[in-house]
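Field reference: sequence -> structure
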Amino acid sequence: MHLSDHPTQNLSADILKCLPVGMAPRLEALVAAQNSTITDEIIRAIEAHLCKQSKANILAIAREANVLIQREA
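Structure field:
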């Protein structure tokens, strides 16, 4: 089953069950403040995490390239 096949209502309930203690109320407050859905906020969080991870990977590659260039110089 793909996420797109999963009924949104059940997916949101499943997500809330899997969150660490104390996280569900914060997520529900964020949903209320943003007038969005739990699924939307989870997707935004994943996208933000992936963006940070990509940036970290790019910086690590740049540092490694810089070290290699300095060694060759």
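Note: Residues 38-72 form the longest helix (35 residues).
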